Amino acid sequence: MVLESIIIVIYSTALVLIFMYALAQLNLLFNYLKADKYSTESPKFDFTNQDEIPKVTIQLPVFNELYVMERLLDNIVELDYPSHKLEIQVLDDSIDESVESTAKQIKSLQKRGFDIQHIRRAKRAGFKAGALREGLKIAKGEFIAIFDADFLPKSDWLKRTIPFFKDLEIGVVQTRWSHINRDYSLLTKVQAFALDAHFTLEQVGRNSKGHFINFNGTAGVWRKDCILDAGNWEGDTLTEDLDLSYRAQLKDWKFKYLEDVETPAELPVVISAARSQQFRWNKGGAENFRKMIFKVFSNKTLPLKTKIHGMLHLLNSTMFLNVLIVGVLSIPMLYIKNEYAHLKAYFYVMSFFVISTLIFFICYWYMYKKTHGSTFKDFVQYVVMFFTFFSIAMGFSLHNSIAVIEGHIGKRSEFVRTPKFNINSIRDSWKNNKYLRKKPSLNVVLEGLLMLYFGFGMYSAFIVGDQGGDFGLFPFHLMLFLGFGFVFFNSLKPRI
Predict the structure, then answer these.
(1) 229 catalytic residue (yes or no)
(2) Number of domains the chain contains
C-alpha cells in the first residue's frame, strides 16, 4: 500500500494544481468581460502637433533569417512616421549568407534616405538580449519598438501605439499578434488557437486589473528610460522579455495592452520549429519563476491577488509537467481504483480534471466566438478545435516538461531560434529550408512509447475490475494517445 499511497498523493497534488490554474483562468475571464466597462480614456500625444511626435528607434534583432529578411525590411520602411524622427537598427548576429544580402538591401535603403543601421557584433553574447542591449547603447529614440523577423506591422502601427506614452507612467505598449498562415495546417491552427487565448483572455484579463503581464518579445514598444530603470536587458534566461517585464513592473512601470491593434506574424509550419519555440518559452518561464518569485512575494506594495496571479503566470509552463504526471499516473490509478474498493472515496479527486477541462472549455469559447462567431456551426467547429488543441497540447507535455525541469533546476542552454519560412499559403513549401533540424531528438522515442502506453490505458478500460471494465478515463487516454501520436509521427516525418 505504500506505493499506491505515493501514487495517489502525487496524482492528487498535480490535479489540484491544475484546478487552481483553471480557477485563475476563470478569474481572468471575469476580468476580461468587465474590462470594457471600466476602461478609461488614456492621455495621448497629439500627432497633429509636430512637436509632440517623439523620436522612435525600431530594433530588428535577427539571426540567420535568409528567407524573411527582405520581406521584413520592405515592410518596416513602409511604416507611416516622420522620417526625421525614425531610426531603424538591424541587430544582425547572423553567421550565414544572409549577412551579405541584408547589408546590400540596407545600403539600398540608406540611399533612399532611410536612417537605418546594420549593427554587427563580434560575439553573440547574451543572444537576443545581448543584441538589444548593444543597440540600446546608441539608440537615438525615446521609445524602442521591437519586431522579430517574421512580424509584419501595418503602416499605421506606430501612430496607434506611440501616442499612449504621453502617460509618463507607461513603460510598455504591447499589441496583439495575428497569424498570416493560421490555416496552413492543423499544427498552425492549433498554435493560433492557443495564442489567441493568450492575447485576449490572459493579457487583457491581467492588464485590466493591474496584474503582471509580459512584453511578448516582439510587436511592442518600450520607453527607453523604463528599460534602463529596470536594469536593462539580461541574457540569463531564455525569455528575456518576461524577465525585463517583471523587473519593470516591480519598479512600478505600467504596461498598456492594445487588443485592437494586430501585428501579423508567421507561425512555425513544421513540428521541429514549433518544438524549439515551445522549449524556449517553457524553459524560460521556469527560469523566470526561479528568478522572480521571491521578488514578487517580498514586494510590500503589491496586492495579494496580484502576487498570486503573478505566481501562476510564472508557473504557466509548469502546468505541462502536472499534465504529464496526471497522464502517466492515471493508468496505475485506474488499476488501484478497481483493486481497492475501500479507496474509492479518494477518487472523487479525479473530478477536478473534468471540472478544470470544463473551465478551460468555457474560457476558450468566449475568446473563440469573439473572432469566429457564435452560431451553432461555429460552436461545433469550436468543440472539434478545442479537443484537438487539448490533445496536441498534451502530446507536447513530455517535451515541455523536460524544458520546465531544466529551467527549475537551473540547467543552462543556448537560445535556439525558431526557423522562419516565409510561408503564407498551402502552396508554399518549407522542405528546402536550410535551418530545419535534420534529425528528431531522442525524446521522440519516448513520445512514441507514451503513445503506446496510453493505447494500453484504453485497452485497460475493458479489462479492469469485475464489473465489465471502467471507462471513466477512456476519453482522457484517447486524447493522450492521439496527442502523443500526432507529435511522434510528425516529428519522424514532419509533413503537417
Answers:
(1) no
(2) 1
